[in-house]
Each structure stands twice: as C-alpha cells, then as structure tokens.
Amino acid sequence: MADQMLPDADDALESGPLLFYNEAVIDHFTNPRNVGEMDDADGYAVFGDPSCGDQMKLWIKVSGGKIVDIKFKSFGCPGAIATSSMATELAQGRSIAEAKKLTDDDVIKALGGIPENKAHCSLMGIGALLAAIQDFEQKQATKA
Amino acid sequence: MKPAHLQRDPIYLDYNATAPLLPAALAAMQPYLTGAFGNPSSYHRLGRQAKAAVEEARTKLAGLLGVLPREIIFTSSGTESDNLALRGVARARGSQGRHIITSSVEHHAVLKTCAALAAEGWQITALPVDANGLVDPEALRRHIRPDTMLISVMHANNETGVIQPIGEIGAVARSCGILFHTDAVQSFGKIPLNVRTMPVDLLSMSAHKICGPKGAGALFVREGTGLAPLITGGSHERGLRAGTENVPAIVGFAAAAEQIIRALPAETKRLTALRDFFEQRLQELIPGVQIQGKNAPRVPNTASISFLSIESESILLHLDLLGICASAGSACATGSTEPSHVLRAMGVAAEASQGTIRFSLGHGTTEKELDFTISAMRDIAGRLRSISSVAVAS
Predict the structure, then answer these.
(1) ipTM, 2 decimals?
(2) Which residue among A3, B95, B115, B306 sits deepest, i.e. has the most Cβ atoms within 10 Å of its Cβ?
(3) DSSP β-bridge partners for residue A66
(4) Closest alpha carbon within chain B to A10
(5) Which of the pair, A53 or A89, is modelled with greater confidence?
C-alpha cells in the first residue's frame, strides 16, 4: 500500500466521543505551537528527566524586556506536550516580569482543564519557562 | 463528509486485552440468556436443562485440553482462577510450608496475590528473567527450599507474548514434589495445550481472551491436588467455588474454545506471518525500533515494540485518533506512570520501555489493517520525534 495521507487534528477530532482529553488539549498535542530550537537564544533551560517520563527544552529570545520569541521541544505524554505548548503560547510577547508571574494553573485554565492525574504535567512548561528566564537573568548579570 | 479513514470500523490490535465475541459463542449463549434461564441447582426441568448445559460445556472444554471434566472449575475470570490457585493451595497446604516461587514477569493477578500472601506471612521468591524475558529452570531449582509448596510461573506473557519453558519448569517442580501452577490466560487458544501431558497441577484460563464472553474463566485442577475454596456457600463446582454458575458465559466460553482451537493450526500460520511482516516493516521504515522478546519463543499474535525517544501514551493517543486500538505495555498499567514491570525485569532501558506499544493481533486482523498501521506509525514516530527533546539513537 502506498503511503497514506494522515488526517489533521480537525478530522481526527471527529473520530471519537471517548477521548480522555478535551479538544484544546488534543489540539495543542496534535499541533503544538512554537516547536523548535534556537541558536541565538538569550535564555535556555532543560527541565525534567526523560528516564522519569518527561523532559522539556525551552529557548527564549528577549528584546526590550519582552519575550519576543520562544521555542520548545518536549518528550512526554500528551498532557506534557500540550501544556508545554500552551505555556510557550502564554509567555510569547509578555514582559519578563509578567512571564515570571505565570503559574501552572494559568496553563491548565487556558487549556480548559486537564485530567486530574495529568495535572503534574503542567508543571513542566512553567518550570522550564522560569528556568529559562533565570538563565537569561544570570547571563544579563554577568554581562553587566 | 467524513474522511475515508473515519468511515471504517476501528482497527483493533488489542486482542491480548480482550477479543470480540464470536458469533458462534453468542448463538450458543442466547437460549440461556432468555428462555433457558434455570438455576443449575434447581430440581425441575429448567434447572436440569441449565445443569446439562454447564456440564456439556465442562466436558467440551476438558476434551479440548485433554483432561477430565471433573478437573475443570469454572470461575468468573482469569484473575479469579489465579487467586483460587494461589490462595486455594496456600490455604489447603499451608501446613506443608510457607514458601512460594513465582516469576518477576507475572500478570498482576498473580503478583498482587503473592504480595497479599506475603502480608499474611508467606515467603515469596520472584525469579528474575533474562533479556528475552525467560525464566531459567536451573535458577528455579536453586531457589527451591524444603518449605517451598507452590511454584507459579505463567505460560505466555501478556505484554511480550514470550512463552516460558513450562515443560522444564514443571519437570523441576515434579522432581521436587512441589505443586506447579501456570497462568495460561494468554496461551490458551493461541498455541496448542495438551494439559494431560504438561507437568502442571493447576492452569488458569479466561473466556474473553479467546473470543468468548467476559465474566467466565476456568481453573484446571489436576485430580488429587488439594485446594481450599475462596468463595464458600453452596456445593457448586465440587465445593471449590460457591455461587450460582454464570450459565450463558460458561456455555459461550466452551463454544468459543471449540471454534478457536479448531482454527488454531491455520491461524497460527496466518498470524505468525502477519506479525513477522508487521515487525519487519516497522523496523525497515522507522529508525530506533526495538522488538522485545524477539529471540524467545512467542505466541504468534503479540508484538511488543519499542519506539525510542518518544513516549507511549502519546503514540497511543495518535493511534486512537486514527481509529487504531493498541496498548502501552500492559493495559492495566495505563494511567500510572510506572514503567512496565515486565520490561524492567527484562532489563529494557527506560528510554525504550517508555516508548513501548503492544500490538496484539487476532482472527479479525488483516494485512490491509497492518499496512495502514505501519504507515500511521511511521507518521506518528516522525511527528513525535520532531517535537521530542530526546535525540533518536538508532
């Protein structure tokens, strides 16, 4: 059989009433935002441990005190991928001061909720974001 | 209009979790769900009719296994059969010793029952397995003690399909005069079992794994094996399992067993070819793919496949969105972040065990379905790896 075109997320959503995750989570899982790496990042962090089930790498570009670009890569379950994606979306365009105030609850709320036993996944996106901001601030301090 | 792939039925590759009821089993059950509703313990004609149906099912199942009808105890499930074997022997023979030997790759029905017995003062030894998932019968011999009174080692593993050397293990048990139980839930109906000639004293089976109904299981108990009941009450099942028999499920169980075992030689050939093709294509098309238990004897329908650097639930959800049903390791472990105890016992590295999917084939599986699944898996692995923070080591 020849290679088949696989459906995009919109088609996929029609496939079942039985999904464990809501549509927003499925959307961020199937089409994660801001995936990639950055060569000239101002801040970078690795968060989590793949041998424990999830890991995230996150890069930020900062200009005029604002996060002007953000990229991530994640290894993990659908909850980890979706919350990573949403965390980058929430941080994109915010000032460093605002971004530092983001919490995992903000991520969960923005996704319209995630199953309770997946709540710990949402810590990853925010954890990685705060660690990348810390890395940025340390670099600024050494420059100064 | 829905895209073509959503207009078809799901592709079901989870036969080790459960299997669809055979039409022949449903037809056999139907009378006992309707007009023939009697209680087998009743004196009157409806009771006698139900009793006859249960005994006919027992005779049929015993015939398929090469054992005596009175050596078959009907239960509610494979799990209950395992519980009856372990706790039943422990209760009946506890005075002869309080040491049980099992393996580290057993189903939870055995492992958790052993843990419960340990809490009651029994001593449990869980034998290690090698990288292929096999127990070493010589290691078993070394762990036998004067107070060892039961050995329980599964026949085929639910996650990997690996078949333990039951003949050799049973021979060791026999030579030491120790009872031997095997959980055959994943081998019965998948490979030929001649229980008469197998050196086992107790053997667990489940109906719904062989396309029978859920709610019926059986335990073979070789004549002369002392066993105490777990459920007491009436004298059903020779006093070893009280409670009104689940007549339709028992009848459906025997009908399914008859058909599955009749089809076994042809199905073995067909499924082995399909499974081998499936594994080979995945390895050819996708980098970083490992097949667990590949060098051990395996039941023909099971493929335990590790996709390095991606996570199994993410794979399962992508498959599910495409209408493909599979499992991550053991179905019972989904929802917990614990890695599979089976793969851990085999020494599979975390980076491989976390991306392991069990595809289990059955009578409804076609080459076309596997072709679709192969190209779906290629796409899914590509997508998840393009997101993954872990580099693919191939």
Answers:
(1) 0.88
(2) B306
(3) A63, A95
(4) B321
(5) A89
